[in-house]
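User: Let's play a game. I give you a shape written as tokens, and you guess the letters that built it. Ready? Here's round one.
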């Protein structure tokens, strides 16, 4: 998985970059076909916003989260993406099961 982190109105420190990479390894536990992740961190007055687009097998997932603390915004972002990745994986598995069930019915 390749992770790119960019910032708007914020300098990306090594601590923030390592925190993002550590959190996104959690997504790989559920689905190992993550190829590319692009994370954008925004700072606007009192708001901190994290958004990410994730390219997975047959889909592109997007999520964003806003919080006064940047680390909490990253945590919320990863939680949202984690749910999306699980749902995407279930859809792929359901499609495979559906195709196998249809083939089995036609043969008998």
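Assistant: Ready! My guess for every position:
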């Amino acid at each position: 998985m390749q992770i790119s982190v960019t910032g708007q109105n914020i300098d990306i420190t090594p601590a923030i970059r390592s925190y993002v990479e550590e959190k996104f390894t959690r997504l790989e536990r559920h689905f190992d076909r993550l190829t590319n992740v692009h994370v954008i961190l925004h700072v606007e007055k009192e708001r901190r916003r994290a958004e990410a687009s994730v390219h997975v097998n047959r889909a592109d997932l997007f999520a964003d989260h806003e919080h006064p603390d940047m680390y909490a915004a990253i945590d919320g972002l990863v939680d949202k993406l984690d749910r999306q990745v699980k749902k995407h994986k279930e859809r792929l598995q359901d499609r495979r099961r559906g195709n196998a069930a249809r083939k089995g019915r036609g043969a008998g």
